[in-house]
Amino acid sequence: MDASGAWPHPLGAPKEQRVTGSLALLPPLPLLEAAERNGQDCRLTMRDPSGGNLLIVLFREGRPTMVFSPGDGRSLGELLLDAGVIDRTVLTELLQSRAVARGPLERLLRQRTGLGDEELQRFFDFQARARLLEALAWRAGSFELERYTGDDESEFRLQLPSFAALAMRAQARAAALAQLRPELPAPPEHLVVRRQAAAVTPEGEIEAAVLAALTQPRLFPQLVARLLVDDDLVLQAVVRLSHAGGVALQARAAAVLGASEAPGGAGSFSGELLKGVVRRLQGNATGAT
Question: Domain residues for 130?
Answer without folding.
Answer: 18-173+263-282
